[in-house]
Write a structure and sequence with these properties.
Structural class: mainly alpha
Helix content: 55-70%
Strand content: under 5%
Number of strands: 0
Distance between the termini: 57 Å
Number of domains: 2
GO molecular function, one term: DNA binding
Keywords: Sigma factor, Transcription, Transcription regulation
Largest sheet: none
InterPro entries: RNA_pol_sigma-70-like, RNA_pol_sigma-70_dom, RNA_pol_sigma70_r2, RNA_pol_sigma70_r4_t2, RNA_pol_sigma_r2, RNA_pol_sigma_r3/r4-like, WH-like_DNA-bd_sf
CATH superfamily of the largest domain: RNA polymerase sigma factor, region 2, helix turn helix motif
CATH topology of the largest domain: Rna Polymerase Sigma Factor, Chain: A
Pfam families: Sigma70_r2, Sigma70_r4_2
Protein name: RNA polymerase sigma-70 factor, ECF subfamily
Length: about 170
Amino acid sequence: MTTLEFSYSLNKLSKTLKPFALKLTRDMDDANDLLQDTMVKAFTNKDKFADGTNLKAWLYTIMKNTFITNYQRMVRRGTFVDTSDNLHFINSGSVVIENDAFGEFAMKDITKAIDNLDDVYKTPFMMHYKGFKYHEIADKLDIPIGTVKNRIHIARKLLKDELQVYITKN
């Protein structure tokens, strides 16, 4: 195969290689770089390609091996790659130390919210929180099981409304 024919074949197959590069890298810019590296390696090693064999499979192998080599090099360097949109976490350590202040504020607010509940709702809610089953609460308080479920549901709803500031939205 002449150099011109080889170049033409590479150019034709480059469009079919791009989805594979994107699958490997999961990033368009990195996929383009991987595709370019693959084409450069293929062209510089065209003398190693045997005529009559599958050029597409040869290119896929070069791309896969190039990706693996680049990945191993990156791991050896210990490079941290942040793929998130928020670059705030670049160079952050894997260990986060918190001082529990937020937890203490939250517990105080939760305790206060539970204390502010009417006893009709607080008693079944706290019993359920402590591990009692619905039927055990119903027997102990001498009320129907449906009433127990309803009061626990209302208590949860009231607490959710009271503690709205602690509910995270995704």
